[in-house]
């Protein structure tokens, strides 16, 4: 994990507490503003999540965790896709697959003159 001393200002909150807050937020599905005060400022947690995503910290953490799990033989992949969770955009449903639609035929008014 990165150093807890930011480039300016004071000390960051403990990384473990911030990771717990991020996990809690995504597990429960609560909005950021409703995050419990137990975790500290929701803005601080959100900013650290964004910073770690931008600087590649999350990739390093997950790579290290995967390498450790693989070395211990604990790595087992199971992927499940539930069709109720995969949705198609509304414009994709029933769209034509073959070229543009043919133009409609022109019609003559019933009382029009006959062509000679």
Write up this protein.
This protein has 116 residues and is mainly α. The chain has a domain at 15-71. The chain has 3 helices and no strands. The longest helix is centred in the middle third of the chain and has 15 residues, at 57-71. The radius of gyration is 29 Å and the shape is elongated.
Helix fraction, binned, reads: 25-40%
C-alpha termini separation: 89 Å
Helices and strands, in N-to-C order?
Answer: HHH
Q: Write down the overall mean pLDDT.
A: 77
Report the β-strand fraction as a percent range: under 5%
What radius of gyration results from the CA coordinates?
29 Å
- Can you count the helices? 3
State the secondary-structure class: mainly alpha
Categorize the overall geometry: elongated
In short:
The protein is mainly α and 116 residues long.
Task: Provide the descriptors you would attach to this structure in a database record.
mainly alpha, 37% helix, 116 residues, 3 helices
Topology:
Elements: H1 15-28, H2 42-55, H3 57-71
Helix pairs in contact: 1-2
């Amino acid at each position: 994990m990165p150093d807890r001393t930011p480039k300016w200002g004071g000390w960051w909150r403990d990384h473990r507490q911030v990771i717990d807050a991020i996990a809690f937020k995504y597990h429960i599905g609560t909005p950021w503003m409703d995050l419990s005060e137990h975790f500290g400022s929701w803005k601080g947690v959100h900013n650290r999540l964004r910073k770690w995503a931008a600087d590649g910290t999350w990739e390093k953490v997950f790579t290290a965790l995967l390498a450790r799990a693989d070395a211990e033989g604990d790595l087992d992949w199971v992927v499940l896709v539930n069709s109720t969770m995969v949705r198609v955009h509304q414009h994709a449903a029933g769209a034509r697959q073959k070229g543009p639609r043919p133009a409609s035929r022109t019609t003559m008014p019933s009382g029009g003159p006959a062509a000679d």
